[in-house]
Amino acid sequence: MKTLVVGANGQIGKHLVTFIQDNDQLEAKAMIRKKEQATYFVERNAETAIVDLEEDIDSIAKAAEDVDAVVFTAGSGPKTGKDKTIMVDLDGAVKTIEAAKKAGVKRFIMISSFDTRREAIQEAPSSFAPYVAAKHYADEWLRATDLDYTIIHPGGLTNEEGTGKIDAGVDVARGQISREDVAKVIEACLEDKNTIGKEFQIVNGSQPIKEAIQEL
To answer: Which residues form the NAD(P)-binding domain (predicted)?
Structure first.
């Protein structure tokens, strides 16, 4: 399965491309913003597509023409303003969904925020609420499609080494999870068709990742 990783130059994206390229059943195509970012992926024999998420739907669709799945791992980051949150986390996600449809790609995996319910927007600190709102509406847009989607809601992200173990479910206790383990969860979802049409929260926990995903 050839997978377009949107946001490949991010920390989750880099882990994911590495894991995919080490998996005999999978192949990565890294979507990056700048040519200078390509070295990491070339070293891993991964194809690259240079597209900025703020470009139009057609540009993203062209990158998705030859793939079997799309994974959206992009994010504007904590240091950007509300404008970038709208343009990347919301509009970038929606354009990627529409691009997948246009390219005829059915499988779509979305990396969301831990809790994107309407209540979570109201309860979030003012500095974080725009991000939760962006993720809320991007998730809603994806649910309304006929794509074979999976929505993953990770807990607080860390750069700790992955443990390979998680707690996963519709409603799990809030906690943290390493970016490396999030990437491993994505890989497991690409391999498991039973995750289609599902969304779930993940934090580092006690169950091996593949086992936790199979039991969803």
So the answer is: 7-192
Q: For residue range 11-39, what is the model confidence (pLDDT) as tens digits?
A: 999 999 999 999 999 999 999 999 999 99
Average pLDDT (74-84) is 76
Range of the structural domain that residue 160 is part of: 2-214
Question: Where does residue 125 rank: exposed (0-12), middle (13-18), buried (19+ CB within 10 A)?
Answer: exposed
- Sign of the alpha-carbon torsion through 38, 40, 43, 49: negative
Strand extents, DSSP E, the chain: 2-6, 27-32, 47-50, 69-72, 107-111, 148-154, 156-158, 165-169, 176-178, 198-204, 207-208
Dist CA 112 CA 115 (whole Å): 8
Q: How many domains does the chain have?
A: 1
Sole residue written with tokens 């607080």: 156
The phi, psi pair for 207, rounded to 5°, reads: -110, 135
**Residue 152: which of 119, 93, 109 has the closest Cα?**
109
- Whichever domain contains 190, its CATH number is 3.40.50.720
- Please identify every residue annotated as catalytic: 131
In this structure, what are the phi and psi dihedrals at residue 31, rounded to the nearest 5 degrees? Answer: -95, 120
